[in-house]
Amino acid sequence: MVEASPIRRLLSSPSMVAALICVLLGSIDLTVVASILPGMIGDLGVNTADIDRYIWAVNAYLIAYIVAIPLAGRVSDLVGRQPAFIGSLLIFLAGSILCATSDTLADLVIGRAVQGFGGGGLLPVALALAGDTLGRKGQLAGIGFVSAVETIGWILGPIYGAAVTGWLDFTDEPWRWVFWLNVPILAALLVALRNLSRTTSRSPGTAITGLDLPGAVLLTIALTTVNLALASGGEIGARTGTGLRAMGGTENPLADQIPWLLASAVISTILLIAWELRSRFPLLPITLYRQSSFLATIGANLCLGAVLMVSMVNVPVVVALTEESGNVSTVSAIMLAPFTIAIAAASLAAGQVARRLDERRTLTVGVAGAATGCLLVAVLLATGNVWSMIPGLVVAGIGLGLLLPALGTLPIQLAGASERGAAASSALMFRLLGMTVGVSTLTALGVRRLQTLTGRLDPIVRETDESTASFLIRQRQFIIDDAIPLSFQVIQETFVAAALIALVAAVPISRLDHHLEQGAAAESG
pLDDT higher for 227 or 174? Predict the structure, then answer.
């Protein structure tokens, strides 16, 4: 159980409370687009069939968030907590304004990247602030609490997005208010942050020499190129009337560049590893990665992130296939609410469950629940009724909720006192990495599979002397009768894939048995 006194000490500081609210907002915006994405792409004039393009409203935030985590933590050590935190907050604020004022998908993606870099920078500085405030004795509880706040944020993201757009549905393009509301909230929090710690280990003038900027650049290139390649992979061999083009999708301009993108990803990853092994100030905590138990928690978090994000992204896609465009955001949020509530409730109950079953069995039940829930969604989707997904989503949410607390705290417990912040950041980084790579991979595989299935159908070709109206009616009927059912089949298959990924998480978790047994023995002793 988390100690009460260190948490009370954190919450007794107005500046620390303000910092925690900022972290919460940053993590809310990580998943907020899950419920508002259909409205965003409609208002921006984006083709709803071009999922490999608009998925970057999600991926841009995730990649920038991942890169910012190790970089901002190091910046806070060099120039002080307050400048690093406020700097990250101002970047997040600028990104929110860019998103709110975007006129094209490209504008939105740039805004999301800026916003993600600022949001990701808030987390490691808040972790460091918790450690500074509580000292070595209360550090573990403080870091665990900040990590829990971050997790709660992305659980609440889809519900928050739907609540704002539903509350302001009388306005034109209400999704913009999700980002505009950040402005007054963050402005007020900036005032409350004026008393944050300015502690620094170096003078600002020497700060740049302690930053692993080459590592950050290489990490950004690796993540961006691999996700571009994966997201564009479904276009290989595409032709008119197959895949997303059967739904009215357009050609992906990067499809021909996939080999170069993959080559760039591989080369930059190799260079990143080589650089980190010799860097005086490595971006990533290399010493922690040499521990097999720590690597096991990282692997489990990678799988967990993929399962979580695939579920969150798939639901709005299913809804968009069946609902009128004006209802998609609301229905998506209603369907995601039981999923996210189940995650939150199970996370809160996980401690009590672990005391009854022990931590190892709790993790096993979590894996089984996540896998079973995803399989149940796949089976129930065969009815063609989107609402039938809810029981499966609830089961998957309970399973994920049982996994989240342990997989967030175990890396912290495995690290030494001086590396706990880095351990917490790494666990969250790899969970986010699982989210972005998982979504990109299953998007590409799904598009590729849809291409294969629709390729077996007779294409809709305009007949001689056929009127435009008649051709469009036949094309629309083809989409309803053939393309949408095949899309449902593909989404069912991605949920099966998510279930398999959840089961894969059991492998690294099994490597933690020795550590979990030691923890159980210590508790019983």
Answer: 174
* Fold exhibited by the domain 1-209: Growth Hormone; Chain: A; (1.20.1250)
At residue 463, the pLDDT reads 67
What count of other Cβ atoms lies within 10 Å of the Cβ of residue 11? Answer: 12
How far from the centroid of its chain's Cα atoms is residue 365's Cα?
Answer: 23
- Residue 223 Cα to chain centre, angstroms: 14
Q: Write the DSSP string, 134-195.
A: HHHHHHHHHHHHHHHHHHHHHHHHHHHHHHHHHHTTTSSSTTHHHHHTHHHHHHHHHHHGGG
Given pLDDT bands bounded at 50, 70 and 90, which one contains residue 93?
very high
291-525, what's its fold? Growth Hormone; Chain: A; (1.20.1250)
Alpha carbons within 13 A on the beta-carbon side of 515: 21
DSSP per-residue letters across 252-286: -TTGGGHHHHHHHHHHHHHHHHHHHHH-SS-SS-H
Local structure of 55: helix, strand or coil: coil
| C-alpha pair distances (Å), 160 with each of 27, 86, 98, 146, 269 | 11, 24, 20, 20, 36
- Indicate the Cα dihedral angle 328, 329, 332, 334, nearest 10°: -120
Per-residue pLDDT of 285-334, as tens digits, reads 777 888 888 888 889 999 999 998 888 888 887 887 777 666 777 787 78
Q: Where are the domains of the chain?
A: 1-209, 212-280, 291-525
114-171 residue pLDDT tens: 999 999 999 888 888 887 777 766 766 777 788 888 888 888 888 898 889 888 888 8
Write 410-414 long-range contacts (CB < 8 A, 24+): 410/297, 410/512, 410/515, 411/288, 411/294, 411/297, 411/298, 411/301, 412/140, 412/143, 412/144, 412/147, 413/140, 413/515, 413/519, 414/288, 414/291, 414/293, 414/294, 414/297, 414/515
What confidence score (pLDDT) does residue 144 get? 76
Locate tokens 């000292």: which residue?
A: 135
pLDDT digits (tens, 9 = 90+) for 3-53: 457 778 888 888 889 999 999 999 999 889 888 887 888 888 877 667 767
| Residue 116 to residue 365: CA distance in whole angstroms | 33
Q: How many other CB atoms sit within 10 Å of the CB of residue 483?
A: 26
Buried b (16+ CB within 10 A) or exposed e, 458-476: eebeeeeeeeeeeeeeeee
Residue 522 predicted with pLDDT over 50: no
Write the DSSP string, 492-507.
Answer: HHHHHHHHHHHHHTHH
Q: Is 1-209's fold the same as 291-525's? A: yes
Closest Cα to residue 379, out of 367, 392, 370? 392
Q: How many CB atoms lie within 10 A of CB 180?
A: 16
One-letter amino acid of 381: L
